Amino acid sequence: LTAEAGAFDAYLWLMRTFARQLEVEVRAGVRQGMGDQRWRYEGYASILHNLVSYYGQFSEPLRRAVADKRAPVEARLKEFAKLAQWSDRNYDALRQSVERSHASLSRGVRLVQELLEVPAATLLLGTLNGQEGAAEDAATDATADPAA
């Protein structure tokens, strides 16, 4: 659970794929005389399968926690996009408006990236315990006005 929240599912997928690859190699190796390595590959495949099964139980709560933390940021950005005006006819005013919009969107993207870089365990502990902790820093920043 030390993986980043955004990469947790990808790591599970990689381990699941590797376990399946080992299982296929064991089945294919039986026909080709794999010998002593067969039991070793079976053991590795079993270990990976059990790891994926155990950590897979945290996948859905983690997805919900990330979605809950991202929702305020996305809502602010959608609201900002509705309020942005592009009807300025003056070049300088339009340029400044574009710069403000770019800065606001950059802040929003940075907040989401910071959220996805939080360790999965931190988000899960905050969610499972119902406590506000270090995982809430990104959500607190997200409630700040991105247009500021």
Search tags:
single chain; 148 residues; mainly alpha; 6 helices; elongated
Structural account:
It is a single chain. With 148 residues, the chain is mainly α. It is 77% helix and 0% strand. The protein has six helices and no strands. It has helices spanning 8-31, 37-56, 59-83, 91-117, 120-129, 136-143. Helix 3 (59-83) runs parallel beside helix 6. It starts with 7 loop residues before the first helix and ends in a 5-residue tail after the last helix. Mean pLDDT is 81; it is low at 131-148.
How would you concisely characterize the structure shown here?
This protein has 148 residues and is mostly helical. It contains 6 helices and no strands. Helix 3 runs antiparallel to helix 4, helix 3 packs parallel to helix 6 and helix 4 packs antiparallel against helix 6.
